[in-house]
UniProtKB/TrEMBL annotation, chain A:
The gene is MRPL4. Transmembrane segments: none annotated. Belongs to the universal ribosomal protein uL4 family. Keywords: Ribonucleoprotein, Ribosomal protein. InterPro entries: Ribosomal_uL4, Ribosomal_uL4-like, Ribosomal_uL4_dom_sf. The lineage of its organism: Eukaryota, Metazoa, Chordata, Craniata, Vertebrata. Residues 116-137 are annotated as: Disordered. It comes from Felis catus. It comes from the Eukaryota. Signal peptide: none annotated. This is Large ribosomal subunit protein uL4m.
UniProtKB/TrEMBL annotation, chain B:
The keyword Protein transport does not apply. The lineage of its organism: Eukaryota, Metazoa, Chordata, Craniata, Vertebrata. InterPro entries: Ribosomal_m50 (IPR018305). It holds the Pfam family Ribosomal_L50. It comes from Felis catus (Cat). It is found in: Mitochondrion. This is Large ribosomal subunit protein mL50. Keywords: Mitochondrion, Ribonucleoprotein, Ribosomal protein. The keyword Mitochondrion applies. The gene is MRPL50. Belongs to the mitochondrion-specific ribosomal protein mL50 family.
Protein backbone atom coordinates (compact mmCIF):
# COMPACT_ATOMS: atom_id res chain seq x y z
CA UNK A 1 0.00 0.00 0.00
CA UNK A 2 1.22 3.47 -0.74
CA UNK A 3 1.54 5.94 2.07
CA UNK A 4 0.15 9.25 1.05
CA UNK A 5 -2.74 11.64 0.96
CA UNK A 6 -3.58 14.52 3.21
CA UNK A 7 -3.91 13.41 6.77
CA UNK A 8 -7.41 14.72 7.16
CA UNK A 9 -8.99 12.83 4.34
CA UNK A 10 -7.18 9.55 3.75
CA UNK A 11 -8.79 6.40 5.03
CA UNK A 12 -7.58 2.82 4.70
CA UNK A 13 -10.25 0.15 4.55
CA UNK A 14 -8.95 -3.36 5.17
CA UNK A 15 -10.66 -6.44 3.87
CA UNK A 16 -10.60 -8.75 6.80
CA UNK A 17 -8.87 -11.99 5.86
CA UNK A 18 -5.40 -12.68 7.20
CA UNK A 19 -4.35 -9.33 8.64
CA UNK A 20 -1.30 -10.64 10.42
CA UNK A 21 0.34 -11.71 7.22
CA UNK A 22 2.21 -8.41 7.30
CA UNK A 23 4.08 -9.25 10.46
CA UNK A 24 5.56 -12.38 8.92
CA UNK A 25 6.03 -11.09 5.35
CA UNK A 26 4.22 -14.04 3.85
CA UNK A 27 0.76 -13.96 2.35
CA UNK A 28 -1.40 -16.54 4.06
CA UNK A 29 -4.32 -18.03 2.16
CA UNK A 30 -7.73 -16.49 2.75
CA UNK A 31 -9.21 -17.50 6.08
CA UNK A 32 -12.68 -16.35 7.00
CA UNK A 33 -12.96 -15.23 10.63
CA UNK A 34 -14.87 -17.59 12.89
CA UNK A 35 -18.40 -16.42 13.49
CA UNK A 36 -19.53 -16.92 17.04
CA UNK A 37 -23.23 -17.66 17.12
CA UNK A 38 -25.08 -15.49 19.58
CA UNK A 39 -28.62 -14.58 20.31
CA UNK A 40 -28.64 -11.63 17.88
CA UNK A 41 -30.36 -11.73 14.49
CA UNK A 42 -26.94 -12.02 12.81
CA UNK A 43 -23.87 -13.56 14.41
CA UNK A 44 -21.27 -10.89 15.19
CA UNK A 45 -17.97 -11.36 13.40
CA UNK A 46 -15.32 -11.79 16.07
CA UNK A 47 -11.75 -12.13 14.97
CA UNK A 48 -8.97 -13.35 17.18
CA UNK A 49 -5.29 -12.88 16.52
CA UNK A 50 -3.93 -15.89 14.69
CA UNK A 51 -0.33 -15.31 15.72
CA UNK A 52 0.68 -15.40 19.37
CA UNK A 53 0.55 -12.08 21.14
CA UNK A 54 3.40 -11.34 23.57
CA UNK A 55 2.31 -11.71 27.15
CA UNK A 56 3.16 -8.12 28.11
CA UNK A 57 1.00 -6.59 25.39
CA UNK A 58 -2.69 -6.79 24.69
CA UNK A 59 -4.23 -6.73 21.24
CA UNK A 60 -5.71 -3.56 19.84
CA UNK A 61 -9.29 -3.72 18.63
CA UNK A 62 -11.34 -2.30 15.81
CA UNK A 63 -14.93 -2.50 14.64
CA UNK A 64 -15.64 -4.78 11.69
CA UNK A 65 -17.90 -2.99 9.24
CA UNK A 66 -19.82 -4.18 6.22
CA UNK A 67 -20.19 -2.66 2.78
CA UNK A 68 -23.54 -4.32 2.19
CA UNK A 69 -25.72 -1.64 3.75
CA UNK A 70 -25.38 2.02 4.52
CA UNK A 71 -25.96 1.53 8.21
CA UNK A 72 -24.11 -1.76 8.65
CA UNK A 73 -21.33 -0.42 10.76
CA UNK A 74 -20.33 -2.49 13.77
CA UNK A 75 -20.95 -5.94 12.32
CA UNK A 76 -18.25 -7.39 14.58
CA UNK A 77 -15.12 -6.82 16.59
CA UNK A 78 -11.63 -7.62 15.34
CA UNK A 79 -8.55 -8.04 17.48
CA UNK A 80 -5.42 -6.72 15.85
CA UNK A 81 -1.89 -7.78 16.69
CA UNK A 82 -0.08 -5.09 18.72
CA UNK A 83 3.23 -5.59 16.88
CA UNK A 84 1.55 -4.45 13.65
CA UNK A 85 -1.15 -2.05 14.74
CA UNK A 86 0.40 -0.46 17.79
CA UNK A 87 4.15 -0.23 17.21
CA UNK A 88 6.16 2.83 18.05
CA UNK A 89 5.22 5.70 15.71
CA UNK A 90 8.56 5.86 13.92
CA UNK A 91 8.05 8.83 11.64
CA UNK A 92 11.63 8.66 10.44
CA UNK A 93 11.15 5.13 9.12
CA UNK A 94 7.87 6.15 7.54
CA UNK A 95 9.60 9.06 5.85
CA UNK A 96 12.42 6.84 4.63
CA UNK A 97 9.97 4.38 3.12
CA UNK A 98 7.89 7.12 1.52
CA UNK A 99 10.94 8.72 -0.08
CA UNK A 100 12.20 5.33 -1.20
CA UNK A 101 8.87 4.53 -2.85
CA UNK A 102 9.05 7.82 -4.69
CA UNK A 103 12.66 7.55 -5.79
CA UNK A 104 13.61 3.96 -6.46
CA UNK A 105 11.61 3.79 -9.66
CA UNK A 106 13.00 7.06 -10.91
CA UNK A 107 15.20 7.16 -13.95
CA UNK A 108 16.03 10.68 -15.00
CA UNK A 109 16.62 10.86 -18.74
CA UNK A 110 18.24 14.28 -18.72
CA UNK A 111 21.44 14.44 -20.71
CA UNK A 112 23.54 17.35 -21.90
CA UNK A 113 26.46 17.46 -24.28
CA UNK A 114 29.93 18.12 -23.02
CA UNK A 115 32.45 20.10 -24.99
CA UNK A 116 33.60 16.87 -26.61
CA UNK A 117 30.12 15.99 -27.86
CA UNK A 118 29.01 19.33 -29.19
CA UNK A 119 29.40 19.51 -32.94
CA UNK A 120 32.49 21.34 -34.05
CA UNK A 121 35.15 22.95 -31.90
CA UNK A 122 38.20 20.94 -32.89
CA UNK A 123 40.27 23.76 -34.22
CA UNK A 124 41.87 26.57 -32.31
CA UNK A 125 39.76 29.62 -33.38
CA UNK A 126 42.68 32.09 -33.57
CA UNK A 127 46.39 31.87 -32.77
CA UNK A 128 47.48 32.02 -29.18
CA UNK A 129 49.20 35.38 -29.41
CA UNK A 130 48.91 38.45 -31.58
CA UNK A 131 45.18 38.94 -32.26
CA UNK A 132 44.46 40.92 -29.13
CA UNK A 133 41.57 38.65 -28.17
CA UNK A 134 41.59 36.28 -25.21
CA UNK A 135 43.12 32.93 -25.74
CA UNK A 136 40.86 29.97 -26.55
CA UNK A 137 41.36 26.45 -27.66
CA UNK A 138 37.96 25.57 -29.12
CA UNK A 139 34.69 27.28 -29.84
CA UNK A 140 32.73 24.71 -27.83
CA UNK A 141 34.35 25.10 -24.45
CA UNK A 142 31.88 25.69 -21.59
CA UNK A 143 32.65 29.39 -21.34
CA UNK A 144 31.55 29.96 -24.92
CA UNK A 145 28.01 30.61 -26.02
CA UNK A 146 26.83 27.43 -27.74
CA UNK A 147 29.49 25.43 -26.03
CA UNK A 148 29.16 22.26 -24.05
CA UNK A 149 27.98 22.04 -20.45
CA UNK A 150 30.76 21.36 -17.97
CA UNK A 151 28.93 19.56 -15.15
CA UNK A 152 25.50 18.83 -16.52
CA UNK A 153 23.35 15.72 -16.19
CA UNK A 154 25.02 12.81 -17.91
CA UNK A 155 22.82 10.27 -19.48
CA UNK A 156 19.99 8.33 -17.92
CA UNK A 157 20.72 8.08 -14.23
CA UNK A 158 18.99 5.57 -12.06
CA UNK A 159 18.06 6.37 -8.49
CA UNK A 160 17.41 2.77 -7.63
CA UNK A 161 18.21 1.60 -4.17
CA UNK A 162 16.57 -0.88 -1.87
CA UNK A 163 15.91 -0.34 1.77
CA UNK A 164 16.33 -3.47 3.85
CA UNK A 165 13.21 -5.59 3.86
CA UNK A 166 12.75 -5.20 7.58
CA UNK A 167 12.80 -1.42 7.27
CA UNK A 168 10.10 -1.53 4.62
CA UNK A 169 8.04 -3.90 6.70
CA UNK A 170 8.42 -1.66 9.73
CA UNK A 171 7.32 1.28 7.60
CA UNK A 172 4.11 -0.56 6.75
CA UNK A 173 3.52 -1.42 10.37
CA UNK A 174 4.07 2.21 11.40
CA UNK A 175 1.67 3.38 8.69
CA UNK A 176 -1.03 1.01 9.89
CA UNK A 177 -0.43 2.01 13.50
CA UNK A 178 -0.73 5.68 12.67
CA UNK A 179 -3.87 5.16 10.61
CA UNK A 180 -5.52 3.22 13.40
CA UNK A 181 -4.52 5.79 16.00
CA UNK A 182 -5.98 8.59 13.92
CA UNK A 183 -9.27 6.70 13.30
CA UNK A 184 -8.64 6.47 9.58
CA UNK A 185 -8.52 2.67 9.49
CA UNK A 186 -11.70 0.68 8.93
CA UNK A 187 -11.91 -3.12 8.84
CA UNK A 188 -14.46 -4.61 6.51
CA UNK A 189 -15.57 -8.23 6.49
CA UNK A 190 -15.65 -8.54 2.72
CA UNK A 191 -15.58 -6.26 -0.29
CA UNK A 192 -18.95 -7.36 -1.67
CA UNK A 193 -21.32 -4.63 -2.72
CA UNK A 194 -25.09 -5.09 -2.96
CA UNK A 195 -25.42 -3.02 -6.15
CA UNK A 196 -23.30 -2.43 -9.20
CA UNK A 197 -24.01 1.26 -8.93
CA UNK A 198 -20.71 3.18 -8.92
CA UNK A 199 -22.24 5.93 -6.81
CA UNK A 200 -22.98 3.51 -3.98
CA UNK A 201 -19.45 3.41 -2.64
CA UNK A 202 -19.00 7.17 -2.82
CA UNK A 203 -22.25 7.74 -1.00
CA UNK A 204 -21.32 5.14 1.59
CA UNK A 205 -17.99 6.81 2.21
CA UNK A 206 -19.75 10.15 2.49
CA UNK A 207 -22.34 8.81 4.91
CA UNK A 208 -19.80 7.16 7.17
CA UNK A 209 -17.47 10.19 7.16
CA UNK A 210 -14.56 8.22 5.76
CA UNK A 211 -12.95 11.22 4.10
CA UNK A 212 -12.23 12.38 0.58
CA UNK A 213 -9.90 9.57 -0.46
CA UNK A 214 -10.33 5.94 0.48
CA UNK A 215 -7.89 3.11 -0.22
CA UNK A 216 -9.45 -0.33 -0.35
CA UNK A 217 -7.08 -3.17 0.41
CA UNK A 218 -8.08 -6.77 -0.14
CA UNK A 219 -6.07 -9.20 1.96
CA UNK B 1 -21.95 -14.65 -35.68
CA UNK B 2 -19.30 -14.80 -33.04
CA UNK B 3 -17.65 -11.50 -32.33
CA UNK B 4 -14.43 -10.79 -34.13
CA UNK B 5 -12.21 -7.91 -33.21
CA UNK B 6 -9.36 -6.46 -35.21
CA UNK B 7 -6.62 -4.94 -33.17
CA UNK B 8 -3.07 -4.01 -33.92
CA UNK B 9 -3.63 -3.00 -37.50
CA UNK B 10 -0.24 -2.09 -38.88
CA UNK B 11 0.65 -0.58 -42.16
CA UNK B 12 2.26 -3.78 -43.31
CA UNK B 13 -0.84 -5.88 -43.06
CA UNK B 14 -3.86 -6.81 -41.07
CA UNK B 15 -3.28 -8.88 -37.98
CA UNK B 16 -6.49 -10.54 -36.99
CA UNK B 17 -6.79 -11.30 -33.30
CA UNK B 18 -9.86 -13.29 -32.62
CA UNK B 19 -11.33 -12.98 -29.15
CA UNK B 20 -13.85 -15.42 -27.87
CA UNK B 21 -14.46 -17.12 -31.17
CA UNK B 22 -13.61 -20.78 -31.61
CA UNK B 23 -11.50 -21.65 -34.60
CA UNK B 24 -14.12 -23.77 -36.28
CA UNK B 25 -16.56 -20.89 -36.59
CA UNK B 26 -13.83 -18.57 -37.79
CA UNK B 27 -12.74 -20.79 -40.64
CA UNK B 28 -16.23 -21.97 -41.42
CA UNK B 29 -17.13 -18.38 -42.19
CA UNK B 30 -14.50 -18.20 -44.88
CA UNK B 31 -15.40 -21.63 -46.12
CA UNK B 32 -18.99 -20.52 -46.52
CA UNK B 33 -17.92 -17.36 -48.23
CA UNK B 34 -15.85 -19.25 -50.75
CA UNK B 35 -18.64 -21.64 -51.35
CA UNK B 36 -21.04 -18.78 -51.87
CA UNK B 37 -18.72 -17.17 -54.36
CA UNK B 38 -18.18 -20.42 -56.21
CA UNK B 39 -21.73 -21.59 -56.43
CA UNK B 40 -23.43 -18.19 -56.33
CA UNK B 41 -26.50 -20.08 -55.37
CA UNK B 42 -28.62 -20.76 -52.36
CA UNK B 43 -26.16 -22.91 -50.35
CA UNK B 44 -24.04 -20.10 -49.01
CA UNK B 45 -26.91 -17.78 -48.20
CA UNK B 46 -28.96 -20.28 -46.18
CA UNK B 47 -26.04 -21.10 -43.89
CA UNK B 48 -25.30 -17.45 -43.30
CA UNK B 49 -28.92 -16.73 -42.49
CA UNK B 50 -29.02 -19.53 -39.92
CA UNK B 51 -25.97 -18.14 -38.25
CA UNK B 52 -27.45 -14.66 -38.17
CA UNK B 53 -30.67 -15.89 -36.62
CA UNK B 54 -28.89 -17.85 -33.91
CA UNK B 55 -26.75 -14.78 -33.17
CA UNK B 56 -29.89 -12.69 -32.85
CA UNK B 57 -31.44 -15.21 -30.46
CA UNK B 58 -28.27 -15.26 -28.37
CA UNK B 59 -28.31 -11.48 -28.27
CA UNK B 60 -31.95 -11.35 -27.13
CA UNK B 61 -31.29 -14.00 -24.48
CA UNK B 62 -28.28 -12.08 -23.18
CA UNK B 63 -30.25 -8.82 -23.14
CA UNK B 64 -33.11 -10.43 -21.23
CA UNK B 65 -30.72 -11.86 -18.64
CA UNK B 66 -28.98 -8.54 -17.98
CA UNK B 67 -32.34 -6.77 -17.68
CA UNK B 68 -33.51 -9.32 -15.12
CA UNK B 69 -30.26 -9.05 -13.16
CA UNK B 70 -30.55 -5.26 -13.09
CA UNK B 71 -34.10 -5.55 -11.79
CA UNK B 72 -33.07 -8.01 -9.05
CA UNK B 73 -30.47 -5.63 -7.57
CA UNK B 74 -31.94 -3.60 -4.72
CA UNK B 75 -32.08 0.14 -5.12
CA UNK B 76 -30.50 1.44 -1.94
CA UNK B 77 -31.20 4.99 -0.93
CA UNK B 78 -28.61 6.79 1.13
CA UNK B 79 -30.02 7.83 4.50
CA UNK B 80 -29.63 11.51 5.46
CA UNK B 81 -26.13 12.47 6.63
CA UNK B 82 -25.60 12.51 10.35
CA UNK B 83 -23.77 15.18 12.25
CA UNK B 84 -20.98 14.10 14.51
CA UNK B 85 -22.04 16.25 17.44
CA UNK B 86 -22.81 14.33 20.58
CA UNK B 87 -24.27 15.68 23.79
CA UNK B 88 -24.36 13.20 26.67
CA UNK B 89 -27.97 12.67 27.82
CA UNK B 90 -28.83 13.32 31.45
CA UNK B 91 -29.90 9.77 32.19
CA UNK B 92 -26.63 8.35 30.84
CA UNK B 93 -25.80 6.47 34.03
CA UNK B 94 -29.15 4.75 34.23
CA UNK B 95 -29.03 3.83 30.55
CA UNK B 96 -25.60 2.32 30.98
CA UNK B 97 -26.69 0.42 34.05
CA UNK B 98 -29.71 -1.06 32.31
CA UNK B 99 -27.55 -2.02 29.33
CA UNK B 100 -25.05 -3.73 31.60
CA UNK B 101 -27.78 -5.65 33.35
CA UNK B 102 -29.32 -6.76 30.05
CA UNK B 103 -26.11 -8.05 28.58
CA UNK B 104 -24.14 -9.24 31.58
CA UNK B 105 -27.11 -10.48 33.52
CA UNK B 106 -28.64 -8.95 36.62
CA UNK B 107 -26.09 -10.64 38.86
CA UNK B 108 -23.89 -7.56 38.63
CA UNK B 109 -25.56 -5.47 41.31
CA UNK B 110 -23.99 -2.30 42.67
CA UNK B 111 -20.52 -2.87 41.24
CA UNK B 112 -21.73 -2.60 37.65
CA UNK B 113 -19.03 -0.04 36.91
CA UNK B 114 -16.27 -2.54 37.62
CA UNK B 115 -17.49 -5.18 35.20
CA UNK B 116 -14.63 -6.13 32.93
CA UNK B 117 -15.09 -6.13 29.13
CA UNK B 118 -12.52 -8.84 28.43
CA UNK B 119 -14.78 -11.20 26.51
CA UNK B 120 -15.05 -10.19 22.88
CA UNK B 121 -18.67 -11.18 22.40
CA UNK B 122 -19.95 -9.40 25.49
CA UNK B 123 -17.88 -6.33 24.75
CA UNK B 124 -19.14 -6.21 21.17
CA UNK B 125 -22.78 -6.62 22.12
CA UNK B 126 -22.50 -4.06 24.93
CA UNK B 127 -20.73 -1.40 22.88
CA UNK B 128 -22.88 -1.99 19.81
CA UNK B 129 -26.05 -1.70 21.87
CA UNK B 130 -24.80 1.55 23.45
CA UNK B 131 -23.76 2.98 20.10
CA UNK B 132 -27.15 2.27 18.52
CA UNK B 133 -28.86 3.68 21.59
CA UNK B 134 -26.92 6.92 21.90
CA UNK B 135 -26.06 7.44 18.22
CA UNK B 136 -22.34 7.70 18.96
CA UNK B 137 -19.80 4.87 18.77
CA UNK B 138 -16.42 4.40 20.38
CA UNK B 139 -13.82 5.07 17.65
CA UNK B 140 -11.37 2.32 16.66
CA UNK B 141 -8.41 4.05 18.25
CA UNK B 142 -9.98 3.96 21.70
CA UNK B 143 -11.60 0.55 21.64
CA UNK B 144 -8.63 -1.11 23.31
CA UNK B 145 -8.80 1.40 26.16
CA UNK B 146 -12.31 0.29 27.10
CA UNK B 147 -11.50 -2.36 29.72
CA UNK B 148 -14.16 -1.64 32.30
CA UNK B 149 -17.64 -0.19 32.11
CA UNK B 150 -16.26 2.81 34.02
CA UNK B 151 -14.05 3.67 31.00
CA UNK B 152 -17.08 3.51 28.74
CA UNK B 153 -18.98 5.78 31.11
CA UNK B 154 -16.15 8.31 31.11
CA UNK B 155 -16.00 8.19 27.32
CA UNK B 156 -19.71 8.82 26.90
CA UNK B 157 -19.68 11.68 29.38
CA UNK B 158 -17.51 13.78 27.09
CA UNK B 159 -19.51 15.89 24.60
CA UNK B 160 -18.24 16.06 21.04
CA UNK B 161 -18.55 19.06 18.77
CA UNK B 162 -18.53 18.94 14.99
CA UNK B 163 -17.33 22.51 14.47
CA UNK B 164 -13.69 23.25 13.92
CA UNK B 165 -12.00 25.93 15.98
CA UNK B 166 -12.32 28.46 13.17
CA UNK B 167 -16.04 27.92 12.80
CA UNK B 168 -16.44 28.38 16.53
CA UNK B 169 -14.46 31.60 16.43
CA UNK B 170 -16.52 33.00 13.56
CA UNK B 171 -19.72 32.12 15.37
CA UNK B 172 -18.64 33.60 18.68
CA UNK B 173 -18.67 37.30 19.61
CA UNK B 174 -15.53 38.85 18.27
CA UNK B 175 -14.33 42.40 18.87
CA UNK B 176 -15.09 44.63 15.85
CA UNK B 177 -11.50 44.85 14.68
CA UNK B 178 -11.02 41.05 14.31
CA UNK B 179 -12.10 39.49 11.04
CA UNK B 180 -11.74 35.83 10.13
CA UNK B 181 -11.93 34.79 6.50
CA UNK B 182 -11.64 31.09 5.86
CA UNK B 183 -12.50 30.26 2.32
CA UNK B 184 -11.89 26.62 1.55
Amino acid sequence: TKVGGRASSFTVVHGLQGLNALAEEAVHPVAKPEAVVSAGPQAPVLRRCELPVPATRRPVQAWVESLRGYQQERVGLAELHPDVFSTAPRMDILHQVAIWQKNFKRISYAKTKTRAEVKGGGRKPWPQKGSGRSRHGSIRSPIWRGGGIAHGPRGPTSYYYMLPMKVRVQGLKVALTVKLAQDYLHIVDSLELPTSDPQYLTELARYRHWGDSVLLVDL
Amino acid sequence: MAALSVSGVTRRGLTWIVLGAPRREFWSRFRHRLWYQDTSGSFGTSNMEHERESARKEKTLVVAETVEEAKKEPILVCPPLRSRTYIPPEDLQSRLESCVKEIFGSSVGNSWQDVSLEDGLLKFSFLARLADDLGHAVPNSRLHQMCRVRDVLDFYNVPIRDQSKFDELTASNLPPNVKITWGY
